[in-house]
Amino acid sequence: MMKVFKFGGASVKDAASVRNVAQIIQSFKEEHLVVVVSAMGKTTNAFEEVLSLFFNRSEKAFDKLEGIKQFHFQICKELFQNEDDPIFSDLHNTFVEAEWQLEDEPVGTYDFEYDQLIGLGEQLSTKIVAAYLKSVGLNNLWLDARDVIRTDNTYRKASVDWNETERLIQERISKAKENIIISQGFIGSSSENFTTTLGREGSDFSAAIFASTLNAKEITIWKDVEGMLNADPKYYSNTVKLDNISYKEAVELAYFGASVIHPKTIKPLQNKNIPLYVKSFLHPEKEGSLIDQNSDGDANVPSYIHKENQMLISISSKDYAFMDEVKLARIFTLFSSYGLTVNIMQNSAISFSVALDYQKEKIDQFMLELKEEFLVSYNLGATLVTVQHFTEKLLANLLDGKTILMEQKTRSTARFVII
Ligand code: ASP
Ligand code: MG
Fold it and tell me: Bridge partners of 49?
């Protein structure tokens, strides 16, 4: 039975990291593996900058692209002693594709051009990893995810056509003679054969798509942390690893904003009851975290989720009327037309409050429109904290000295908007 691995950008950020990935794969070489890899290091961000320069018609787009090229070639020079290795011409051709795109005026929308260009990051990383594995004797098949992950044409957040994807993946993989398959995270293709992407950090989801359609035995997401932690070490000291939590708990944590796993990853795995391991690529011998159907461990450790840069908006009607369903429906239509996601909401008779991620480009215009119809007040720079499996004592510590702008509690979850 298949195992699916996912290696993120940090695990392939330089030549030493690629060697480390090869070592991990080496120790599983008797198994059937599908290995999904993200773009190297911060390549996706770098491509995003290229695109924005391109849309500003700035020549600097080419300089920035040249930087990405140097970065990948430098890694290859360290990995491949033989300068004639086909990887060099392979990479070269991929960059020629990018240069062509930048030489013309943009032909499609920003989102369309985005997917055509940004998806190259995963092409590059997987070509390098696949070639390197070969060079150390690990035979493998490089599979273009665009040949098997079929999506609609909603560029930048494409929806997967599950039936077609399952058929294509099963067909391609059953034909493969190699027992190691290397493929890209993040990308797929539309039925017109254009590259699509599944949303930032979407490679976890790609790995789950492979696992689910192949009825894999298990999936492992290799990270630079020892597993799923109960809090982000950026904000909290004394974090602890969650040894075993249920799919449901993992979905809740991801929904509240825990950034360890892409939120869409869990559902396909839960549906097929495929266990998900989160392990450290720096310490592959350590146990990591396990996410499966077992919920016994869910409440063992309280988890903290921190979302900064929140805008709290309070909305009421201009004539002191109730905030009824019709008004709420109007407000939600506005949210969705601006692509704004509500992180938490609360209502009283005459006012309705929400916290959202403050994204200036979208929100300024949204606020103008909202103010035409409603009375609006807001706070910026707030933080949304969620404590899963809280105790009153933990909350008292957490909230000490803070101003609470909004508060919500259920039996297991406490959420606060604070400044
Ligand atoms: N490379 C893409 C990103 O940085 C996808 C991923 O890493 O999961 O968003
Ligand atoms: Mg990543």
Answer: none
The DSSP-derived string for 139-154 is --EEE-GGGT-BB-S-
Q: Looking at residue 58, which CATH number applies to its domain?
A: 3.40.1160.10
Q: Which residues contact 116 (CB under 8 A, 6 or more apart)?
A: 101, 108, 194, 195
Tokens, residue 331: 């407000």
Number of domains in the chain: 2
Q: Is residue 116 part of a domain?
A: yes
CB under 6 Å to ligand 1: residues? 8-9, 38-39, 44, 121, 185-186, 200-203
Neighbours of 282 (CB within 10 A): 15
Nearest protein Cα to ligand 1, atom 6: 201
Q: Is 20 a domain residue?
A: yes
Task: List pLDDT tens digits, range 205-236.
Answer: 999 999 999 999 999 999 999 999 999 988 88
Residue nearest to atom 2 of ligand 1 (CA): 201
**3-class DSSP state of 31:** coil
pLDDT tens-digit map of 138-165: 999 999 999 999 999 999 999 999 999 9
- The residue out of 199, 223, 247 marking a domain boundary is 223
In a domain, 197, yes or no: yes
Secondary structure (DSSP) of 151-219: B-S-TTSPPB-HHHHHHHHHHHHHH---SEEEEESSEEE-TT--EEE--TTTHHHHHHHHHHHTT-SEE
Atom of ligand 1 nearest to the CA of 201: 8
Residues 174 and 315 in one domain: no
Q: Which bound ligand lies closest to the C-alpha atom of 43?
A: 1
